[in-house]
Amino acid sequence: MMDDFDDIMLARTPTAARPLLGLTVLVVEDSRFASEAMRLLCLRSGARIRRADCLTSARKHLRVYRPSVVVIDLGLPDGSGTGLIAELDKASPRIDVLLGISGDPAREGEAMAAGADGFLSKPVETLGAFQQAILSLLPETAQPPAPRQIPDEAIQPDPFTFREDIARAAGVLQDGPDGDALDYVAQFTSGIARSAHDTQLEAAAVALAKDRAIGRSIRGDVQRLSGIFRERLAGGEVV
Known about the structure:
Layout: H1 4-11, E1 24-28, H2 32-45, E2 48-52, H3 55-64, E3 69-73, E4 75-76, E5 79-80, H4 81-90, E6 97-102, H5 108-114, E7 118-121, H6 127-135, H7 159-174, H8 179-196, H9 199-214, H10 219-235
Parallel strand pairs: 1-2, 1-3, 3-6, 6-7
Antiparallel strand pairs: 4-5
Helix pairs in contact: 7-8, 7-10, 8-9, 9-10
InterPro entries: Bact_response_regulator (IPR050595), CheY-like_superfamily (IPR011006), Sig_transdc_resp-reg_receiver (IPR001789)
Organism: Profundibacter amoris
Domain Response regulatory: 24-137
């Protein structure tokens, strides 16, 4: 059941400055840093945002609300986002816009094959790129008035959310994870590192993923990654 605020938002029409007014965006994303970026992008664009950090939570949202746009991360703690994309693509009525998102641009084909309408490569840092990804897939009746200048404003998520992501990944690694959990830590960490432009952390995560894939010893990779986690948490820095 929609509250008064929902009614107000849905009744509003898009403007040149707020081209996504009236839309509700469900972001299915386990990274707090990436979620904060999406919150800022939606806020500046006029859209309302709902967030889920896993597939289970997303499905609970979707049983109650019908968003206009769903942005689904492909690597989630309880499975691949492609499964949810495929479900929503086949659902009736269908969500207006389905977008896959990943820190690995090579996964675009995977998202599109599952039924996504488009793909976002992390980090998504400018309003223009975010808005165009959605507006290009909406019907003409949902478009803002033209002409409209495409904004090049960059957003800057709160660095504290990056530290929260680091703490989460470090906790999983400290627990002595099994193979699947190690793979998750590697892909999660590489994604947040790419979003934060932390090249040292990204390289360490990618090395762990590569050595896991070819069956090479990962002891050194885990030690290196754990050390970087400690440095980031101790220093409070975002590179």
